[in-house]
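pasting for the record
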Amino acid sequence: MMNKLSILLIAVLITGCGAVNLGARSSKLEVKVGGRNSTLNLKSGATYLGNVISTAPGKPNVQTFAHTIYLANFEMDTSYPGWVRKPLSSPDHMRIDIQITGEEGTREDSPFKVGTYSAKADKFNAVRSVIINSLVDGKETKTSFDTFSSSKVVDGDLKITAVTAENVSGEVNLSEGDKSIKGTFTANLPKKK
C-alpha cells in the first residue's frame, strides 16, 4: 500500500510541475506599436548567447556578454543556422527581440544572471536593443526602440527572475513614446553541446 501511495504522490508532483511549466509557456506580453495595442500570447521563446567588445580611441576595451531573448506568438524553428532571419509567414505573427548586456568582463559563455537590466544603463546590466517584428500590410516591419543614442528616451527594464539549465524567465516593462512591451516570459536556453 505504501509503494502505491508513494507512486501516486510522485505522479501528482510530476503533474504539478508540468502545470507550472505550461503556465510559464502561456506567458503573455502586452505590446503597443504603430498606434495599435495587441497581446502576444507566447508560444515559443529562444535565446542566443553572444558578446560585445566596445572600443574607443584612448580608452580601454570593454567586454561584456550580449545575450538576446526571442519571444514569439508562433513556434519558432531554431534547428538551423540563420533561423532568426526567416521572414514572418502570417499576418498575425509577431516576434520580439531583446538583447541585454551583463557585467563587465562577462563573455559569450557567461550564463544569464538573475537581476535587473535597465534601459537607462550605459554599458553594463543594460537593455542593449529592442526590436518588434511584425507584418503590416503584407510587409515585414521591424520597429526598434532607440537604445543607442545619448538622448535615448527608452524607459523601464527587463528583470531576469529565474534561470535553470533549460530556460530563462522574467518580466519586461519597456516603453518609448507610443511603443511599449509589458509582461512575463520564459525562453529556452541553447542546448549544451
